[in-house]
C-alpha cells in the first residue's frame, strides 16, 4: 500500500477437531521425513531465523515461543529454493500456516476489559476530535499502521524517534509519512492515559490499531472489532525498512510476493490497496507515467490533467488524491477508477491490467459490501503480523521512545 500525504514528513481463530487431526497426521509425516538431509537444512534455516528473531527482545524463558509466520515462511522459502521438493516445502508451509493461525490467539478483543475498560471510547473520542481538525488524519493514520506492521511487525516501532535520525521513520520510504498520523497516536495516547485506571496500561501498538479502525469507520468505512494485546517494540532502524514496503511501480508478482511473505493473500492485498480511496500521493511517485510518453494504460484525459497539476518542476510538496472523485470517503470508487484507467500509481492500475487480479477488482467495483468485508478480513490479518505479546517488548510511557 503506497500512500503519501499532503502534510509530508513531520474473533480468535478456532482450530476444529478435524483440522487438528489433519495437522497431527502431517506432523507425524514430517517427523518421518526429518532424516532427509535437505529437510534438515530447511529446519536448520528455520531455527536460525527463530533465534535471530528472538535475540533482541525476548527474555530467556520466551526463547521457544513461536516466531511470526512471515519470518518462518521466508526461511522455508529460502531453503526450498535450494532444492527441496515442492511437496516437502508445501508440507512445511502447511505446518507453519497452522502455527500462524494459533499464534493470533495471543491477541483478543477484550484484552483490556479489566485493566482499561474504556480504552476504545477514549481512543475514538481523541481520533474524532483530530479528524475534525484535518481530514489528513484518516489517510495518515491508515498508512502509518500499514508501514508499522510490514516492518518488524505491528509493534509501533515506526513511532520511535532516533536522535541520530536512524529510525524507521527516517528511511526514504517513510519520510513522507504525514505528521498528522503520528499526532493522532500522541493525542489518543494522552486521552487513554488521562484515565488513572488506564495510565501506561495500553500499548502504543494497540492505540495505533484502534485509531486506524476509527479513522476508516469515521470516513464511511466499515466498523470492525480490533484484536488487542500487542506490546511495543524496542528497536527501530533504517535498515529494517529496506525492501519491506511496496513501491509505486510494483507489478502484481512483486506485490504478491511481499504480501504473501507477511501471511496475506492476493485478495487481502487488493482489499488493502482499496485504502487508497482516501489516500494521496506526491507527484514524483507517478511522474514517469505522465512524462514525454504517457503510460498507454492510463486514461488519456486523466493523464493530461495530471500533467497540468504536476509539471516538470513542480513543488515536491504537492500531492494529489489517489481517488479524484470521492477522496474523503472510504468507498469502492478506487476500484471503479481502475476500470477506467484512472489508477494514479502504476501499482494501482496493475491490479486491473493483470488478468489474475482483474476479477477481484471488478467484484469490489460492483459490490461495495464485498470490498468492505474483504478489507476487514485483510486488516485484521495485517494487525497480527509479527506481534509481540506477553512479556515481549514493553508498554511505552512515551510512544516516541523506549522506556
In short:
This protein has 403 residues and is mainly alpha-helical. It has 15 helices and two strands.
Overall pLDDT level: 82
Strand order of the largest sheet: 1-2
Give the domain tally: 3
- Strand content range: under 5%
Question: Regions with pLDDT < 50 over 5+ consecutive residues?
Answer: 7-72, 74-103
Cα distance, first to last residue? 31 Å
**Which of globular, elongated, flat, extended, rod-shaped describes the shape?**
globular
**Major sheet details:** 2 strands, antiparallel
Query: CATH architecture of the largest domain, please?
Result: Orthogonal Bundle
The CATH class designation of the largest domain is: Mainly Alpha
Cα-based radius of gyration, to the nearest Å = 21 Å
Secondary-structure class: mainly alpha
Tally of separate helices: 15
Describe the structure.
There is one protein chain. The chain contains 15 helices and 2 strands. The protein folds into 3 domains: 17-106, no CATH class; 119-241, Peroxidase, domain 1, CATH 1.10.520; 263-382, Peroxidase, domain 2 (Orthogonal Bundle), CATH 1.10.420.10. 48% of the residues lie in helices and 1% in strands. The model is unreliable at 7-72 and 74-103 (pLDDT under 50). The protein is mainly α.
Amino acid at each position: 500500500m503506497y500512500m503519501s500525504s499532503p502534510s509530508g514528513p513531520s474473533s480468535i481463530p478456532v482450530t476444529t477437531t478435524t483440522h487438528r487431526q489433519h495437522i497431527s497426521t502431517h506432523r507425524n509425516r514430517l517427523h518421518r521425513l526429518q532424516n532427509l538431509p535437505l529437510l534438515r537444512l530447511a529446519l536448520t534455516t528455520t531455527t536460525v531465523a527463530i533465534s535471530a528473531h528472538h535475540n533482541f527482545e525476548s527474555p530467556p524463558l520466551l526463547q521457544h515461543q513461536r516466531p511470526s509466520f512471515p519470518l518462518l515462511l521466508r526461511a522455508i522459502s529460502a531453503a526450498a529454493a535450494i532444492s527441496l521438493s515442492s511437496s516437502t516445502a508445501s508440507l512445511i508451509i502447511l505446518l507453519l500456516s497452522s502455527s500462524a493461525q494459533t499464534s493470533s490467539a495471543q491477541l483478543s478483543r477484550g484484552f483490556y476489559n479489566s485493566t482499561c475498560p474504556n480504552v476504545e471510547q477514549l481512543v475514538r473520542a481523541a481520533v474524532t476530535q483530530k479528524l475534525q481538525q484535518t481530514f489528513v488524519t484518516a489517510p495518515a493514520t491508515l498508512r502509518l499502521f500499514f508501514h508499522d506492521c510490514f516492518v518488524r511487525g505491528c509493534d509501533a516501532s515506526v513511532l520511535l524517534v532516533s536522535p541520530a535520525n536512524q529510525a524507521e521513520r527516517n528511511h526514504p520510504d517513510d519520510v513522507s509519512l504525514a505528521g498528522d498520523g503520528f499526532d493522532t497516536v500522541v493525542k489518543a495516547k494522552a486521552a487513554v492515559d488521562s484515565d488513572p485506571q488506564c495510565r501506561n496500561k495500553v500499548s502504543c501498538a494497540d492505540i495505533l490499531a484502534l485509531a486506524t479502525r476509527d479513522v476508516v469507520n469515521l470516513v464511511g468505512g466499515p466498523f470492525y472489532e480490533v484484536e488487542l494485546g500487542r506490546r511495543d517494540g524496542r528497536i527501530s532502524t533504517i535498515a529494517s525498512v529496506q525492501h519491506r514496503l511496496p513501491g509505486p511501480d510494483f507489478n502484481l508478482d512483486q506485490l504478491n510476493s511481499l504480501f504473501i511473505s507477511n501471511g496475506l493473500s492476493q485478495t487481502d492485498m487488493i482489499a488493502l490497496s482499496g485504502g487508497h480511496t482516501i489516500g494521496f500521493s506526491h507527484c514524483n511517485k507517478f511522474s514517469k507515467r505522465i512524462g514525454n510518453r504517457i503510460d498507454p494504460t492510463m486514461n488519456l484525459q486523466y493523464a493530461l490533467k495530471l500533467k497540468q497539476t504536476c509539471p516538470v518542476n513542480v513543488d515536491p510538496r504537492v500531492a494529489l488524491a489517489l481517488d479524484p472523485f470521492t477522496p474523503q470517503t472510504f468507498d469502492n470508487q478506487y476500484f471503479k477508477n481502475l476500470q477506467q484507467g484512472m489508477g494514479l500509481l502504476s501499482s494501482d492500475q496493475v491490479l486491473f491490467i493483470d488478468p489474475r487480479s482483474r476479477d477481484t477488482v471488478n467484484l469490489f467495483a460492483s459490490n461495495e459490501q464485498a470490498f468492505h468485508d474483504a478489507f476487514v478480513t485483510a486488516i485484521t490479518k495485517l494487525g497480527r503480523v509479527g506481534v509481540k505479546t506477553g512479556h515481549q517488548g514493553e508498554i511505552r510511557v512515551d510512544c516516541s521512545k523506549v522506556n
